[in-house]
Amino acid sequence: MSPAEIESNASLLIIAGSETTATFLSGITYNLLRTPAVLKKLTELVRTTFAVESDITVLKVQQLDYFTACIEEGLRTYPPVPIGLQRVTTAEGNTICNKYVPPNTKVSVPQWASYSSPANFLDPDRFVPERWMKNPPAKYANDNRAVLQPFSVGPRNCIGRGLAYAEMRLILARVLHNFDFELQEDSRNWLSEQKSYGLWEKTPLHVKIIPRKL
Ligand code: HEM
């Protein structure tokens, strides 16, 4: 790319391509530390599946259903894009959710509100990866799973979705393989202290990182 092309693409690569995935990884780190039983199960899965770090590949991590369930629950509990992204109705207007919406009206579905609503998910504030398994526990079977669309939908949805999943899987698996974690006291309320004006305005997440004892 020419310097001019790099310059005009830089904000896209930083905001769309890096901030989002990094945000997800911060959020899932926090939620795993707040849910020790899940952290233990996921860490054991990674360490028993991969004897050494170099065994970890995107394709192999992709085959671990519980790992994928944790990623989906991470996207639900802390969607990197928490707001609703706007679309505009056509010149004739559109019928959306059985209601007529007039022409040229901006519409959107707010992600954070939809994912944390008890109308869509049982125990919305709990981190429950099992709700994303093929056979979820009966009490979570009626969750409205189709509502989770963290990469948006339609022809202008996230073009980097595949790359994002690859990065999330690889980085999380390698980090869990190598380290143990402790959430520091001053970060206990990390999520509830945050505001969003588009993306999340993250405060520092203080975590003690300890090399795994072999
Ligand atoms: C967890 C990570 C990510 C999330 C949650 C995410 C989410 C989104 C969302 C919600 C949109 C807006 C789509 C819409 O308006 O309907 C979007 C657009 C976009 N994303 Fe991502 N994204 C992620 C990672 C990435 C990565 C890694 C890249 C590239 C390296 C990327 C590149 C883009 C681009 C270029 C667009 C604009 C697409 C267009 O307007 O046609 N994203 N993303």
Automatic annotation (TrEMBL):
Cofactors (names): heme
Keyword Oxidoreductase: yes
UniProt KW keywords: Heme, Iron, Metal-binding, Monooxygenase, Oxidoreductase
One function term, GO molecular function aspect: iron ion binding
SUPFAM superfamilies, per the entry: Cytochrome P450
Family in the record: Belongs to the cytochrome P450 family.
PROSITE patterns: CYTOCHROME_P450
Annotated binding of heme, by residue: C158
Protein name: Cytochrome P450 monooxygenase aclL
Alphabetical list of InterPro entries matching this protein: Cyt_P450 (IPR001128), Cyt_P450_CS (IPR017972), Cyt_P450_E_grp-I (IPR002401), Cyt_P450_sf (IPR036396), Cytochrome_P450_monoxygenase (IPR050121)
Organism whose genome encodes this protein: Lachnellula suecica
PANTHER family xrefs: BENZOATE-PARA-HYDROXYLASE, CYTOCHROME P450
Pfam families in the cross-refs: p450 (PF00067)
Gene: aclL_4
